[in-house]
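Sequence design from tokenized structure. All designs in this work follow the same two-part layout: the structure record, then the generated sequence. An example of the structure record is given first.
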């Protein structure tokens, strides 16, 4: 069985690594010649919208998926007319535009922060009145890891925030006074079977995820499961999906969803009975889904911009290093580590140790 993947970055790499033990082969379509998944399968080098390469991908792959949501939706539509594509193009189209995404959330009764479309400085000046300050201006498309967004603290910031987007369509969001950021990851196969991972509690800095900690038994698990179930059913979703949420005094406010495996679920490789990567493959191939319970108290720490010395990290008990085979670069995710422990106190100590190493090489 051969799986086609649009994109050949670290997420595609981790999907392929999860697929080899269960006998799968992979073919990647990616514009970069040195993508970090290339050595794990056949590589079609070229633009995502190259019709010749897309035809080859559809012919050679039994099913096609994607590792990130900025693949053009029309590419998924092209492929879906020729082979199986999961998740479906509809999920991709909704996730690619923040304005469409927020309207979709509200249409299925998932709460969001107040928001308004912004297409000019005049729009922004008008929108800030009902939404209030502070607020966040975000580009509707192509934003990730804190890119394409500006925090607005006063009306003096409006012009600069708008100029920073260079006229791109945007959405103004009210600032959510959250207690913590969390995410839930679920998998749904073709037959409609669904499994949920324990909630992840996430710490961001500079718009980039730094630490994700599994919170099995979290009091908001059931509410998060209800929201992501609603989202998956509305999208007729197949695959792994991540829903990012704000915890506001026990209420959950949706931030965004990702129609793919997710950085906040990287702890599942060592920390869950079945990783998010394997369950994504099981889902799109309509295989039975694996158990998602945590095998221990677990967390993931990202390395941004640079790498620690391997021996320093591997000397830490219960730490597991995952390198992406990517050259260090400012603001770039180049690796992560997972840690496991028997108690919360032990886990926090391990997170602190690994985070210290991460901060020493951080070039974000």
């Amino acid at each position: 069985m051969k799986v086609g993947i649009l994109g050949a970055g670290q997420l595609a790499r981790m999907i392929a690594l999860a697929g080899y033990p269960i006998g799968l082969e992979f073919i990647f379509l990616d514009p970069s010649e040195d993508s970090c998944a290339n050595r794990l399968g056949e590589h079609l080098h070229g633009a995502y919208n190259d019709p010749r390469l897309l035809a080859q991908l559809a012919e050679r792959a039994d099913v096609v998926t994607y590792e990130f949501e900025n693949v053009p939706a029309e590419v998924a539509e092209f492929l879906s007319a020729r082979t199986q594509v999961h998740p479906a193009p509809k999920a991709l189209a909704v996730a690619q535009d923040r304005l469409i995404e927020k309207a979709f959330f509200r249409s299925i009764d998932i709460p969001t922060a107040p928001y308004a479309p912004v297409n000019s400085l005049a729009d922004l000046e008008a929108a800030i009145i009902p939404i209030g300050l502070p607020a966040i201006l975000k580009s509707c498309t192509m934003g990730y890891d804190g890119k394409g967004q500006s925090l607005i603290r006063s009306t003096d910031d409006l012009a600069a925030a708008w100029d920073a987007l260079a006229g791109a369509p945007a959405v103004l969001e009210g600032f959510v006074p959250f207690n913590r950021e969390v995410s839930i990851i679920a998998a749904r196969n073709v037959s409609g079977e669904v499994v949920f991972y324990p909630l992840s509690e996430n710490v961001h800095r500079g718009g980039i995820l730094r630490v994700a900690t599994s919170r099995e038994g979290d009091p908001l698990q059931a509410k998060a499961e209800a929201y992501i179930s609603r989202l998956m059913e509305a999208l007729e979703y197949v695959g792994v999906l991540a829903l990012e949420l704000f915890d506001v005094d026990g209420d959950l406010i949706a931030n965004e969803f990702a129609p793919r495996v997710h950085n906040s679920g990287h702890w599942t490789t060592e920390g869950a009975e079945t990783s998010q990567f394997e369950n994504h493959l099981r889902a799109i191939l309509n295989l039975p889904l694996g158990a998602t319970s945590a095998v221990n108290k677990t967390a993931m720490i990202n390395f941004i911009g640079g790498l620690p010395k391997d021996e320093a990290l591997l000397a830490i008990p219960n730490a597991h290093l995952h390198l992406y085979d990517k050259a260090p670069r400012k603001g770039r995710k180049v690796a992560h580590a997972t840690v496991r422990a028997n108690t919360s106190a032990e886990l926090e100590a391990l997170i602190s140790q690994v985070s210290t190493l991460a901060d020493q090489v951080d070039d974000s």
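The CA atoms of residues 27 and 342 lie 39 Å apart. We note this feature because it recurs in several other targets discussed in the main text.
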